[in-house]
Amino acid sequence: MGFSRTVIISCAGMGNRLGLGTTKALVEIDGKPLIVRHLEMLKGETDIRVVVGYQAEKIINVVRQYRKDALFVFNHNYRKTGTGASVALASRYANEYILSLDGDLLVHPDDMKKILSYEGEFVGGGTIGTDEPWMVQTYEKDGEEFVGGFSQNEGTYEWNGITQMRSSKMMDGVGHVFQLIEPHLPVKFMMLRTREIDTINDYERAVDWVKNGFQDGEEGQTTVS
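Now predict its structure.
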């Protein structure tokens, strides 16, 4: 049996800081909602689960136009829980590995290809670029880079919510996704170019990034090959 993966996209949160009156997964960048950009790049994946909460019906309607076979998982407690709870809910009866993505994230298309071609566990991170980042702490061993911890105070890269882990490790949690991962560190690190959209400034930067063909001079390097 080959590599088997379940993709979980967390879209339950409210995104209050953005102030656009819509859940962040439906924010349009250059005329296309973020969740649709994810789905377009995940065409080859057979098991996609979208976790919904706030404005669930709107997200379901948009996703169904693109993926009739997507499964929807409800996080009814989305006001009080983090994306870790959403991933844990969606991990029931998952394939051997879970790829966790946030619905409010833009991923460089080349880096999404790199993610989807990788068979094994990794934790993603990128250049520090938001105002209040959680950071990934890494170290090198035998020429490879590994994640040893997460911190609000110090780290080499910004945690962007992207990870691929064995599903058995992702089934229990209520906080953040990185809190699901922490007991299982160290895990290989993967450098990824992404844009998270939390504020209007983030949104405007993301629009420029897409319009410039995802070019901004920050050519990330892959550590996981």
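The two ends are 22 Å apart (CA to CA).
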